[in-house]
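Recap from last week: sequence in, structure out.
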Amino acid sequence: MHERQAVIFGVLLAFLALAFVTSAAVYTGNLKMPFFSRAFTSKPTPSTTHDPQPCPPSGSLPVARASITVNVYNGTATPGLAKSTGDALSSLGFAIKSETNAIASYAGTARISFGIKGIAQAYTLAAYVDHAAFQLDTRQDASVDITVGGQFLSLKSSDTVKLDPNTPFAAPAGCVPYDQILATTATPPATAPAG
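Predicted structure tokens:
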């Protein structure tokens, strides 16, 4: 009986060792097996990369907070962050449209997304957020989204924000000129059919 048990355990251990070596070889790519041809995938890591920041249009002024429609997204695993941030923005006078979780996580402080018509709105909102990243998208309205990320702590208090409604925004260093962005996003004119 002892010999039979030794044989059974020996076979099991040998099988486990073979399975471990084979799986390690497949995982590292040293062994190609047709039924394991699908690449191994992992969860995407949070990213703080973003498009170059567009400059505000020449002479553009801060926008009244009550006229800025904001969607708030939680880019972290912290529950309720979109709601608390939306409440804070609402108390500052911004018009909050939605508060929900982001599709993907975000590691930075906050990312503000907007369309070509919402640049002044985005700059106004960004004045209340430290180190916000800008992301221009293809939306056609002037609404803005803010995705709060892993480094977000809180909004600036209104008494520390220096926005003069009569003073145009200054273009930050390294931004892409508004006219250049407008030229690349402009729809080419339709051509008449030949003939």
